[in-house]
Design a protein that fits this description.
single chain; 197 residues; alpha/beta; six-stranded mixed sheet; globular; binds 2'-deoxyinosine 5'-triphosphate; binds magnesium ion
Protein backbone atom coordinates (compact mmCIF):
# COMPACT_ATOMS: atom_id res chain seq x y z
CA UNK A 1 0.00 0.00 0.00
CA UNK A 2 1.11 3.59 -0.62
CA UNK A 3 2.55 5.01 2.59
CA UNK A 4 1.95 8.53 3.88
CA UNK A 5 3.93 9.64 6.92
CA UNK A 6 2.10 12.05 9.20
CA UNK A 7 4.98 14.13 10.57
CA UNK A 8 3.84 14.22 14.19
CA UNK A 9 4.35 12.45 17.50
CA UNK A 10 1.04 13.77 18.83
CA UNK A 11 -1.12 10.64 19.45
CA UNK A 12 -4.34 12.64 19.25
CA UNK A 13 -3.49 13.89 15.77
CA UNK A 14 -2.28 10.44 14.64
CA UNK A 15 -5.55 8.80 15.72
CA UNK A 16 -7.64 11.40 13.92
CA UNK A 17 -5.68 11.10 10.66
CA UNK A 18 -5.95 7.30 10.81
CA UNK A 19 -9.71 7.54 11.31
CA UNK A 20 -10.24 10.15 8.63
CA UNK A 21 -8.04 8.38 6.04
CA UNK A 22 -9.42 4.96 6.87
CA UNK A 23 -10.58 3.35 3.62
CA UNK A 24 -8.66 5.85 1.49
CA UNK A 25 -6.22 3.17 0.33
CA UNK A 26 -3.19 4.81 1.94
CA UNK A 27 -1.12 3.28 4.70
CA UNK A 28 -0.93 5.98 7.37
CA UNK A 29 2.21 5.98 9.51
CA UNK A 30 3.55 8.65 11.87
CA UNK A 31 6.70 9.58 13.72
CA UNK A 32 5.55 7.16 16.43
CA UNK A 33 6.63 4.50 13.87
CA UNK A 34 9.93 6.33 13.32
CA UNK A 35 11.00 6.96 16.92
CA UNK A 36 14.54 8.04 16.00
CA UNK A 37 13.27 11.01 13.96
CA UNK A 38 14.68 14.46 14.63
CA UNK A 39 12.61 17.16 16.34
CA UNK A 40 11.86 19.91 13.83
CA UNK A 41 11.95 23.41 15.31
CA UNK A 42 8.67 25.30 14.78
CA UNK A 43 10.31 28.63 14.00
CA UNK A 44 7.62 29.94 11.64
CA UNK A 45 5.28 32.77 12.56
CA UNK A 46 2.25 31.14 10.89
CA UNK A 47 0.66 27.69 11.00
CA UNK A 48 1.38 27.28 7.28
CA UNK A 49 5.08 28.07 7.69
CA UNK A 50 5.42 25.55 10.51
CA UNK A 51 3.53 22.86 8.60
CA UNK A 52 5.91 23.34 5.64
CA UNK A 53 8.99 23.14 7.90
CA UNK A 54 7.81 19.86 9.45
CA UNK A 55 6.62 18.23 6.20
CA UNK A 56 9.73 19.08 4.19
CA UNK A 57 12.21 18.04 6.89
CA UNK A 58 10.59 14.63 7.36
CA UNK A 59 9.95 13.92 3.67
CA UNK A 60 13.56 14.81 2.87
CA UNK A 61 14.93 12.66 5.68
CA UNK A 62 12.94 9.50 4.90
CA UNK A 63 12.46 10.19 1.16
CA UNK A 64 8.74 9.53 1.53
CA UNK A 65 5.53 11.42 0.98
CA UNK A 66 4.74 13.29 4.16
CA UNK A 67 1.87 15.35 5.54
CA UNK A 68 2.50 17.70 8.48
CA UNK A 69 -0.17 19.38 10.61
CA UNK A 70 0.43 22.61 12.46
CA UNK A 71 -2.59 23.66 14.42
CA UNK A 72 -3.76 25.68 17.39
CA UNK A 73 -6.37 27.79 19.09
CA UNK A 74 -6.89 31.48 18.45
CA UNK A 75 -8.92 33.39 21.09
CA UNK A 76 -10.30 36.81 20.16
CA UNK A 77 -10.25 38.20 23.72
CA UNK A 78 -6.51 37.34 23.86
CA UNK A 79 -5.86 39.01 20.47
CA UNK A 80 -5.37 35.64 18.76
CA UNK A 81 -3.28 33.93 21.46
CA UNK A 82 -2.17 31.23 22.02
CA UNK A 83 -2.05 30.82 18.19
CA UNK A 84 1.14 29.19 16.92
CA UNK A 85 2.29 28.92 20.55
CA UNK A 86 -0.71 26.75 21.53
CA UNK A 87 1.35 23.63 22.35
CA UNK A 88 3.87 25.61 24.41
CA UNK A 89 1.48 28.15 25.96
CA UNK A 90 2.15 27.25 29.61
CA UNK A 91 5.76 26.18 29.05
CA UNK A 92 8.16 24.34 26.76
CA UNK A 93 7.22 20.92 28.19
CA UNK A 94 3.88 21.01 26.25
CA UNK A 95 1.41 20.18 29.00
CA UNK A 96 -2.25 20.10 27.83
CA UNK A 97 -3.69 20.40 31.37
CA UNK A 98 -1.49 23.42 32.18
CA UNK A 99 -2.37 25.05 28.85
CA UNK A 100 -6.13 24.67 29.50
CA UNK A 101 -5.84 26.05 33.02
CA UNK A 102 -3.90 29.04 31.78
CA UNK A 103 -6.61 29.90 29.22
CA UNK A 104 -9.45 29.44 31.74
CA UNK A 105 -7.66 31.72 34.21
CA UNK A 106 -7.09 34.39 31.59
CA UNK A 107 -10.78 34.31 30.60
CA UNK A 108 -12.13 34.22 34.17
CA UNK A 109 -15.17 36.51 34.45
CA UNK A 110 -15.18 37.34 30.72
CA UNK A 111 -18.82 37.25 29.48
CA UNK A 112 -19.97 34.68 26.94
CA UNK A 113 -20.25 37.21 24.10
CA UNK A 114 -16.52 37.90 24.34
CA UNK A 115 -15.33 34.28 24.48
CA UNK A 116 -15.26 33.59 20.73
CA UNK A 117 -12.37 31.50 19.39
CA UNK A 118 -11.41 29.22 16.54
CA UNK A 119 -9.19 26.26 15.89
CA UNK A 120 -6.82 26.51 12.93
CA UNK A 121 -5.18 23.66 11.06
CA UNK A 122 -2.56 24.04 8.35
CA UNK A 123 -1.57 20.93 6.43
CA UNK A 124 1.45 20.68 4.17
CA UNK A 125 2.15 17.76 1.86
CA UNK A 126 5.74 17.29 0.75
CA UNK A 127 7.67 14.79 -1.33
CA UNK A 128 11.34 14.57 -2.31
CA UNK A 129 10.35 15.15 -5.94
CA UNK A 130 7.45 17.56 -5.95
CA UNK A 131 6.66 21.04 -4.77
CA UNK A 132 5.03 21.34 -1.37
CA UNK A 133 1.30 22.12 -1.28
CA UNK A 134 -0.61 23.60 1.67
CA UNK A 135 -4.23 23.99 2.78
CA UNK A 136 -5.91 25.51 5.84
CA UNK A 137 -9.01 24.63 7.81
CA UNK A 138 -10.85 26.28 10.68
CA UNK A 139 -13.49 25.44 13.26
CA UNK A 140 -15.38 28.33 14.90
CA UNK A 141 -16.56 28.22 18.49
CA UNK A 142 -16.15 29.61 21.98
CA UNK A 143 -14.24 28.98 25.18
CA UNK A 144 -16.30 27.44 27.99
CA UNK A 145 -15.96 28.33 31.69
CA UNK A 146 -14.86 24.88 32.78
CA UNK A 147 -13.38 21.70 31.34
CA UNK A 148 -15.84 19.05 30.21
CA UNK A 149 -15.45 15.77 28.32
CA UNK A 150 -12.80 13.10 27.91
CA UNK A 151 -12.55 12.66 24.14
CA UNK A 152 -10.08 14.24 21.77
CA UNK A 153 -6.96 16.02 23.00
CA UNK A 154 -5.43 19.42 23.64
CA UNK A 155 -7.93 22.23 24.16
CA UNK A 156 -11.00 20.10 23.28
CA UNK A 157 -12.42 20.10 26.86
CA UNK A 158 -12.78 23.93 26.88
CA UNK A 159 -13.89 24.50 23.26
CA UNK A 160 -17.56 24.51 22.29
CA UNK A 161 -17.96 24.33 18.50
CA UNK A 162 -20.52 26.71 16.98
CA UNK A 163 -23.96 25.11 16.73
CA UNK A 164 -23.26 22.51 19.48
CA UNK A 165 -24.22 22.58 23.12
CA UNK A 166 -21.26 20.51 24.34
CA UNK A 167 -17.49 20.74 24.16
CA UNK A 168 -15.41 19.12 21.43
CA UNK A 169 -14.26 16.62 24.08
CA UNK A 170 -17.89 15.56 24.69
CA UNK A 171 -18.58 14.81 21.02
CA UNK A 172 -18.09 11.28 19.67
CA UNK A 173 -14.88 11.09 17.63
CA UNK A 174 -16.80 10.55 14.38
CA UNK A 175 -18.53 13.87 14.94
CA UNK A 176 -15.33 15.76 15.79
CA UNK A 177 -13.78 14.30 12.64
CA UNK A 178 -16.63 15.75 10.57
CA UNK A 179 -16.61 19.32 11.92
CA UNK A 180 -13.04 19.94 13.07
CA UNK A 181 -10.45 22.31 11.61
CA UNK A 182 -8.41 19.19 10.75
CA UNK A 183 -11.33 17.63 8.86
CA UNK A 184 -11.93 20.93 7.04
CA UNK A 185 -8.27 21.09 5.96
CA UNK A 186 -8.04 17.42 5.01
CA UNK A 187 -11.13 17.69 2.79
CA UNK A 188 -9.28 20.37 0.81
CA UNK A 189 -6.13 18.26 0.54
CA UNK A 190 -7.54 14.80 -0.09
CA UNK A 191 -8.06 14.93 -3.85
CA UNK A 192 -4.55 16.28 -4.41
CA UNK A 193 -2.77 13.50 -2.50
CA UNK A 194 -2.90 11.07 -5.46
CA UNK A 195 -0.76 13.42 -7.57
CA UNK A 196 2.15 12.91 -5.17
CA UNK A 197 2.44 9.18 -5.93
O1 LIG B 1 -8.14 19.17 17.41
C1 LIG B 1 -7.64 19.77 18.38
N1 LIG B 1 -8.22 19.78 19.58
C2 LIG B 1 -7.69 20.37 20.65
N2 LIG B 1 -6.52 20.99 20.63
C3 LIG B 1 -5.87 21.02 19.44
C4 LIG B 1 -6.39 20.43 18.29
N3 LIG B 1 -5.55 20.63 17.27
C5 LIG B 1 -4.53 21.31 17.76
N4 LIG B 1 -4.73 21.54 19.09
C6 LIG B 1 -3.79 22.19 20.01
C7 LIG B 1 -2.95 21.15 20.72
C8 LIG B 1 -1.61 21.80 20.80
O2 LIG B 1 -1.60 22.64 21.96
C9 LIG B 1 -1.58 22.70 19.57
C10 LIG B 1 -0.95 21.99 18.38
O3 LIG B 1 0.42 22.26 18.33
P1 LIG B 1 1.30 21.59 17.16
O4 LIG B 1 2.67 22.14 17.23
O5 LIG B 1 0.55 21.70 15.89
O6 LIG B 1 1.28 20.05 17.54
P2 LIG B 1 2.18 19.20 18.55
O7 LIG B 1 3.36 20.01 18.99
O8 LIG B 1 1.33 18.64 19.60
O9 LIG B 1 2.66 18.00 17.64
P3 LIG B 1 3.54 18.10 16.27
O10 LIG B 1 4.07 19.49 16.14
O11 LIG B 1 4.61 17.08 16.44
O12 LIG B 1 2.59 17.73 15.18
O13 LIG B 1 -2.91 23.01 19.26
MG1 LIG C 1 4.48 21.06 17.59
Amino acid sequence: MKEIIIATKNKGKVNEFKEMLNGSGYQVTSLLDYPDSVDVEESGVTFVENAILKAEAISKHYRKITIADDSGLSIDYLNGAPGVFSARYAGEEKNDAANLSKVLTELKGVPEAKRSARFHCALAIASPEKETFTVEGICEGMITEKMEGENGFGYDPIFKPRGREVTMAQLPKEEKNTISHRADALKKLEKGIAQYF
